[in-house]
Each structure stands twice: as structure tokens, then as C-alpha cells.
Design brief:
Blueprint: H1 2-40, E1 64-75, E2 83-94, E3 99-108, E4 114-123, E5 126-132, E6 138-141, E7 144-149, E8 152-158, E9 162-171, H2 179-205, E10 212-213, H3 224-237
Parallel strand pairs: 6-10
Antiparallel strand pairs: 1-2, 1-9, 2-3, 3-4, 4-5, 5-6, 7-8, 8-9
């Protein structure tokens, strides 16, 4: 009889221990499943992560009035027609986020002042010239180089047998233009405004469309490095 009671106690103790172990294991399993559920499922109400926004490249702001501080022309015919530029003043106007227009007057040695105007656009980290097809579609090309450092601009203009190199510094627009340039400057602005009307209309009609970029014409670049050295030295002095 005593043996039977003792055996029953042992069996009962084993059952109770097994039950406790099993319950503890189930609790641990449930906690593990709950933790996994938290790790693999986002709580409701959270907005999905947005992809990082693309960093916009900074577009140089070149609008304003600029007076030339250095300028010269280099020709292809053994430099027989090289010249110095005595005076030049340009006005740059911002047309939209990426496009600018400019007009100005240049006085070359022994020649009357002549005016010019053009339109440029900043695309792919550089300035291009802006033009219009016969149907009004804007396009880009590059017969000029335009560099900017602070309030200083370098402008290279490529022609068939001549290249013009100029460096300008920004000046207050309230300053008077040289007397010898004033009459021609009025003409420059008139022609610029006429062309600007067409350019702006073309840009507004084709907003968001990728323009065609045409290869530049043949360039006379023999003195580009000489000018670049002058530019680099000038910029270094402004640091």
C-alpha cells in the first residue's frame, strides 16, 4: 500500500512539472511569435518611406549689369586682324529658372561701337545658347562659353575666323553707361526686346520638353588656353 501511494505521488509530480514546462514553453513561443510579428509588420497608420528627393543643381544667377575689365580678339590669319577691346557693357536679364537673355555694346579698336544680344540657358551644368527652329521649337547650341565666379563673368565668342575673349565685373545698374556707348546701347535693347518676345513665347509653349542640343560650329580655339590661364589667375586673386 505504501509503495502504491509513493508511486502515485511521483507520477503526479512528474505530470505537474511537465505541465509547467509545457506552459512556459507555450508562453515563450507566443512571445517569440509576437516579437516576430512586430518586426515583420509595420503598424497600421504609418506612411511608407518616401524616396530621397533628388538634389537640384544650383543654377548660377547672372542677371545684372556688367562692365568689361579685359577683352581682346584673336584671328586665324597670323593674327593680322587681332584687336583689343576698349569698352564693353552688357546687361543680363533672367527670363525663367534656367534661361537668361543679354544685350550690350562693344567698342573695338578703330571701329565704331557695335551691339549684340543673345539668349542662354543653363543645362547639364553649363551655359548653352538658346535658339528657335522655324516652327518656334527651342533648341540649344554652343558657339559661346560663359563662366561665372562670384560677380565676375568670362565670355568667349566663336566666329568663323575670329574668337573674342572678354572678362566682365558686375556693376550697379544705376551707374551711367559710357557716353560713347549710349546711343548704340538703345539700339541693342530694342533689337533684344523684339527677339525676346519670340524666345519667351517658344519657351512657354514647350515647357518641360527636352530641347535638341546641336553640335557647335567649327571653333578657332588656339588661344583658349591662354585666356583660361588669365581667367584662372584672376580668380585665384579674388579668393
Amino acid at each position: 500500500m505504501k509503495k502504491t501511494i509513493y508511486l502515485s505521488v511521483i507520477i503526479l509530480s512528474f505530470v505537474l512539472q511537465y505541465g509547467c514546462v509545457k506552459n512556459n514553453q507555450e508562453i515563450q513561443d507566443n512571445e517569440t511569435l509576437h516579437l516576430l510579428d512586430q518586426l515583420t509588420h509595420k503598424p497600421s497608420g504609418l506612411v511608407p518611406d518616401k524616396p530621397a528627393e533628388e538634389v537640384k543643381k544650383e543654377i548660377p544667377q547672372i542677371q545684372g549689369r556688367y562692365d568689361m575689365i579685359l577683352g581682346f580678339g584673336r584671328s586665324t590669319d597670323d593674327r593680322k586682324h587681332d584687336y583689343d577691346i576698349f569698352k564693353s557693357t552688357f546687361y543680363f536679364e533672367k527670363l525663367n529658372e534656367t534661361d537668361f537673355g543679354y544685350y550690350g555694346v562693344t567698342k573695338r579698336k578703330e571701329l565704331s561701337p557695335n551691339f549684340e544680344y543673345n539668349f542662354v540657358a543653363y543645362d547639364k551644368n553649363k551655359f548653352y545658347q538658346r535658339g528657335l527652329e522655324n516652327n518656334g521649337t527651342p533648341y540649344l547650341y554652343q558657339n559661346e562659353e560663359l563662366w561665372l565666379h562670384g560677380d565676375t563673368i568670362a565670355l568667349i565668342q566663336y566666329h568663323a575666323n575670329m574668337t573674342t575673349y572678354m572678362i566682365f565685373e558686375k556693376k550697379p545698374e544705376s551707374e551711367e553707361v559710357y557716353v560713347s556707348l549710349r546711343k548704340t546701347m538703345k539700339e541693342a535693347k530694342q533689337w533684344y526686346e523684339k527677339k525676346k518676345t519670340n524666345i519667351v513665347a517658344g519657351l512657354e509653349t514647350h515647357v518641360g520638353k527636352t530641347p535638341t542640343i546641336y553640335n557647335p560650329n567649327d571653333r578657332y580655339t588656339e588661344y583658349d588656353q591662354e585666356f583660361k590661364a588669365i581667367w584662372d589667375k584672376m580668380i585665384e586673386g579674388k579668393k
